[in-house]
Amino acid sequence: MGKVTGFLEIDRQVHKYQPASDRIRHFREFTLPLSDSEVEKQAARCMDCGIPFCHGPTGCPVHNQIPDWNDLVYNGDWETAIRNLHSTNNFPEFTGRICPAPCEEACTLNLEDIPVAIKTVEQALADKAYETGFIRPYPPQTKTGKRVAIVGSGPAGMAAAQQLGRAGHEVHVYERESRPGGLMRYGIPDFKIEKHFIDRRIEQMQGEGVTFFCGSNVGIDKPMAELLADYDSVLYCGGSETPRAAGIPGDDLDGVHDAMPYLVQQNRRVGGEDIQSVAWPSQPILANGQHVVVVGGGDTASDCVGTAFRQGAVRVTQLDIRPQPPEKEDKLAVWPYWATKMRTSSSQAEGAEREFQVATLEFIGEDGQLTGVRCCEVDDKRKPIPGSEFVIRADLAFIAIGFAGPFADAVLSELSDGMKTVVDRRRSKNIAANDRDYRTSVDRLFAAGDARRGQSLVVWAIREGRQAAHAIDEALMGSTVLPR
Length: 484
Hints:
The structure is a single chain. The protein is α/β, with parallel strands linked by helices. It is about 30% helix and about 15% strand. The chain contains 19 helices and 17 strands. It has helices spanning about 5-10, 20-25, 35-45, 65-75, 80-85, 90-100, 100-105, 120-130, 155-165, 185, 195-205, 225-230, 260-270, 300-310, 330-335, 410-415, 420, 450-455, 460-475; strands spanning about 15, 30, 145-150, 170-175, 210-215, 235, 255-260, 290-295, 315-320, 355, 360-365, 370-375, 390-395, 395-400, 425, 430, 445. Strands 5-4-3-6-17 form a 5-stranded parallel beta sheet, sandwiched between helices. Strands 7-14-8-9-10 form a 5-stranded parallel beta sheet. The protein has a 3-stranded antiparallel beta sheet with strand order 11-12-13, with no helix packed on it. Helix 15 (about 330-335) links the parallel strand 9 and strand 10 (about 355). Helix 3 packs across helix 8 (about 120-130), helix 4 runs antiparallel to helix 5 (about 80-85) and helix 6 (about 90-100) runs antiparallel to helix 8 (about 120-130).
């Protein structure tokens, strides 16, 4: 695939960024795209490796046919490459921007730390698709007469809605917030993905017959029982949004917040909306002139770091209880799987101070207001090391240690009579449904995305939405031509 000797002749190149001093002054995307000719060169590096782990189970969850569209791009056939990419991924402009690219970790060339720039090529293809007019409505030729309701308009709900709409079903998507997109719109900052990409897909889907009902909080404003009575099938894609309890003393001080209300609030500001969210009400949270501490080492924590810098924080410190990972992994031990190694996000590179193998013992304050975070070093078993305590000054602290399942006060509360079968308590109170037919214990109720799988990547949500659509179409019609 690609140019047989391309990986020997062409150096790996990916998108460059605006300098940190420039990009922290705005909330727009800051990647500097490569020219078409440079993208074609990067696609040419895709070697004839025999077994392309990049699109297998260790690489791409949606099984993008990466070697195929790399070869097409290398040969200048962008249109066919765009069609190939969209055959497995409804929203490559999302994944091309915010996916951590496990495909590149699984690339054969990653054995030499020079993987093919798959994510860069994918984003270029997705953007080219808009430029060429490929992203337009593709309404079904015939209607089935079946009606499907989807609860939640995140990437899982959107992917399922588009697939089912194109299969000819009447699809209604119910969204709690004022605009579609779920936490992809309200949780991921605009500097990682600008929201007009979501808006364009919503417009396309509406042209394909999908109807969105925003400001409808199913389980509270609209009973789930009503949906089950009115529709032939219901798919629950409500996400995993309950913050994982940290249990840190002092978390009730003013200035201590869960991460998501902070991120949602800022995204609503950028989008020109009222900062008050249905699910994340909070007083205005701003980091300008503040000393900020972020507890957690994942993507959500990193998003808090980047947001705080753009709001004008004086200092941002990120605390991670895990040991500092090695700069380079043992390839023969972990490849082609995702490796634990030192990674620095674009937000962290903007000036964050990172503390590894540190536990957060207590939030301390005066007169109810946060003034500092008491910490200590821990050993390999995460036990405090005596005499290692220290205090970090903090005016604001954000807890970003993950999520424990869907909100329990809406749909799950209504289904409480069957809670033991609807909720899988072994998996952080996620909805119990398998990844073959996505059925719950409630008749005609399906579940997919983070609500079923647990917190995960956007690309996994798209996969689950597509597979759930396959299962629903087969259940309604007896057979299906939708890909799984």
